[in-house]
Amino acid sequence: MHATERERLILEALAPSGFISYRELEAKLEASPATIRRDLTRLEAEGLLQRVHGGAKLPDATAPDAPATGVQLLGTPFDQSITQNLAAKQTIGRAAAALCDPGEGVMIDGGTTTLQMCPHLDGRDLQVLTNSLHIVNALLPQKGTRILIPSGSVFREQNIILAPAGEDSMPRFHAPKLFMGGAAVGPQGVMQHDIILVAAERRLMDRAEQVILLVDSSKFVSSSGAIVCGLDEVDVLITDAGITPDMAAMVRAAGVELIVA
């Protein structure tokens, strides 16, 4: 098992309770104690976990049971991000909306690029599960669009609803398509700045038949962060014409359908 895959599994295992023991990690990863210690050391250096006696835990600032008013998501706030590469995001959103079949149920993860789908969904009579209050507000005027939201805490930086302690808040919902964004995309996979976002997106991915990633070409950079998934877990990637030939080849080599809007 590759190191990036082990790191993703470690972060996923931490999300529900905020702690995992060395013994649990050895059983889950089928790796040696020395290998697991090296993985934990790397993740701790990136600020994604803390090594403690007997195992590892989430950093105090992102512990699942911390009060919502005291937790802030890492990364660029929504109000700032919405203005960046807006024209490309609008083009990507239009192309993504065209993939939705009339009357189907879809999941749309919160983000400034996925938000751009909303104007083009009117008249398709979709059922939409979303954790984004921005997306809810954009869809409310559409009389034929039915909206579902999970319960949880509102994170004001992104105006999204997240429940990092577990999955009980998620509606019993399965959809043919999940539309989601990412903070960065590279050979390691799709990355986010915050482990709480990783856990939330993994729960959505588990409920989808097809994962459709919406990222503008500026997101194809060499970056560090919490890995949401490998590129091989993405079915379709929609981006703009600014993607470089090398990055396009990397995406296609992973078996991903690439749509350049």
UniProtKB/TrEMBL annotation:
Residues 3-58 form the HTH deoR-type domain. InterPro entries: Carb_Metab_HTH_regulators, DeoR-like_C, DeoR_HTH, NagB/RpiA_transferase-like, Tscrpt_reg_HTH_DeoR_CS, WH-like_DNA-bd_sf, WH_DNA-bd_sf. Keywords: DNA-binding, Transcription, Transcription regulation. SMART domains: DeoRC (SM01134), HTH_DEOR (SM00420). The keyword DNA-binding applies. GO terms for molecular function: DNA binding; DNA-binding transcription factor activity. Pfam families: DeoRC, HTH_DeoR. This is DeoR/GlpR transcriptional regulator.
